[in-house]
Design a protein that fits this description.
Helix content: 40-55%
Radius of gyration: 15 Å
Shape: globular
Largest sheet: 4 strands, mixed
Distance between the termini: 11 Å
Number of helices: 6
Number of strands: 4
Length: 110
């Protein structure tokens, strides 16, 4: 429970990864703002270059855009995610609880 209390104090970041359909990824990442404090869409370089043409849309929605090149292992931040608070505090608390239970964080520290 102490670890869970510490996690609650930190920003919860949600990542959505897509190979091709950046619009679907943006929609999903935006929905993550329901429970996460910030959301980031991660795409391969070619797809992210296309998505970056709609930079203002990402900024308007507060969703970050990153490019990940699997060959080089490099990550490029193209649009910063707006850091705020989750739109639903109860949903955020449930997400933190699920993360703690799924990864047994409480048991790992005992």
């Amino acid at each position: 429970e102490r670890l869970k209390a510490r996690i609650v104090k930190h920003k919860l970041t949600a990542f959505e990864m897509k190979l091709t359909d950046w619009r679907k990824g943006l929609s999903q990442a935006y929905r993550y703002g329901f429970f996460a404090d910030r959301a980031i869409l991660v795409l391969p370089p070619n797809t992210s270059a296309t998505a970056a043409k709609s930079k203002s849309l990402f900024q308007q929605l507060g969703v970050g855009l990153w490019s990940f090149d699997s060959e080089s292992g490099k990550i490029r931040k193209l649009v910063g995610a707006k850091s705020s608070v989750a739109r639903d505090a109860v949903a955020r608390a449930k997400a933190v609880d699920l993360i703690c239970r799924r990864f047994n964080f409480g048991k790992a520290r005992k």
